[in-house]
Design goal:
Layout lengths: L10 E4 L2 H17 L5 H8 L1 H7 L1 E6 L5 E7 L15 E9 L8 H15 L4 E7 L3 H9 L3 E2 L5 E4 L2 E9 L2
Helix pairs in contact: 1-2
Length: about 170
Amino acid sequence: MTGSVLPEAVRVRRADPATLTAAGELTAAAYAADGFVGDDYVETLRDAATRDREAEVWVATDAVGSVLGCVTYCPPGSPWREVAADDSEGEFRMLAVATTARHRGVARLLVQHCLERSRALGQHRLVLCSERRMAAAHRLYVRLGFVRLPERDWAPAPGVDLLAYSVDLR
């Protein structure tokens, strides 16, 4: 669906108990729709409540409160951090946008929120890793100033190649 939602109509906020289930289902559905999830990872994607206890789940909602997208921000000390070298680096993962809300700036707003969150924590860099085949996400990251960080690429499982990206916040 090509939407006409204006950026002002979309609000990014911390997920609450009422939106965590929707955020988890949205994440699993978005990854599945693009062919980026196997049976062993889908439950991890659905479990936004655990991610929010151990990290921070942020949602983008429309004017009526429907969840359009979400992201997991991994602050220092979070077990969800995968590529951050130390506490001076912020990290996010599991950026997902509902298929019906794509191409409306929702992903950009969520990434911009992660940039602001890292700056608020006094971090000098924001990092992430993304599956090699996620070309649309890679284009967004580059447009927002992220550069490849190939020395931190890794594979959590056979056939799952993750590319690292970073942006300097100074």
